[in-house]
Task: inverse folding
């Protein structure tokens, strides 16, 4: 699996798995159960995101807007430092970079086969079951005061991930995700301006390559 797709996949499933409108639970088990209950009712999400990657001698920051809609629809629209797009209508997924005049395509089902977030978006699992050793992380300073940080290891990716840190607001929204890989690389996602259950037209998740764009079938990762 491409490294970028791996990070992207983990982040996507956590975004929707950790959304809730009620107050903080007393303990992690109760919190996880409340999150799962809310997730079953969540239909869509819109948020601004910042993605920071540090590793392999690189330090890269990108930002844009994210839209998610059940079942399995997603759009990551990067605007800085350059335009690029990852979009899926639940059937096919595309990665498009206008400057490259190239679009890569793969079936959404194939994304599931390589542990993409689609299984989580479709409600096939629970947070505590997927994140081994889920617990509070009092040693980690939150990005914003008043938030709580959790940590756990995704069982299916334990060979590649040392831990995932999840920063949750008092409203049970996720403000930040940090994916720590065993090789020392780290990818951080920060989310602002989150809007839940907003109306999002299905057309936002469709993609038609512009004229003159080279298209190819390939595994994806923005």
Result:
């Amino acid at each position: 699996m491409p490294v970028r797709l791996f990070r992207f996949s983990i982040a996507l499933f956590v975004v929707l798995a950790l959304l809730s409108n009620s107050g903080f639970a007393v303990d992690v088990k109760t919190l996880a159960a409340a999150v799962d209950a809310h997730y079953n009712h969540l239909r869509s999400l819109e948020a601004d995101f910042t993605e920071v990657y540090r590793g392999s001698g690189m330090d890269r920051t990108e930002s844009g807007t994210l839209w998610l809609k059940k079942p399995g629809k997603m759009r990551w629209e990067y605007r800085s430092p350059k335009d690029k797009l990852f979009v899926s209508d639940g059937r096919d997924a595309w990665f498009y970079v206008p400057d490259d005049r190239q679009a890569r395509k793969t079936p959404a089902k194939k994304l599931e086969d390589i542990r993409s977030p689609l299984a989580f978006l479709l409600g096939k699992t629970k947070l505590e079951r997927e994140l081994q050793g889920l617990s509070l992380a009092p040693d980690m300073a939150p990005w914003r005061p008043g938030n709580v940080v959790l940590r756990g290891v995704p069982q299916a990716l334990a060979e590649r991930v040392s831990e995932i840190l999840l920063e949750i607001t008092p409203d049970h929204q996720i403000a930040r995700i940090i994916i720590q890989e065993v090789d020392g690389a780290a990818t951080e996602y920060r989310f602002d301006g989150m809007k839940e259950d907003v109306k999002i037209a299905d057309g936002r998740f469709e993609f038609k390559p512009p004229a003159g764009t080279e298209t190819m079938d390939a595994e994806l990762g923005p």
Notes: The chain has one domain: 3-217. The radius of gyration is 17 Å. The first helix runs from residue 3 to 17. The helical segments are 3-17, 28-39, 108-113, 118-121, 127-130.
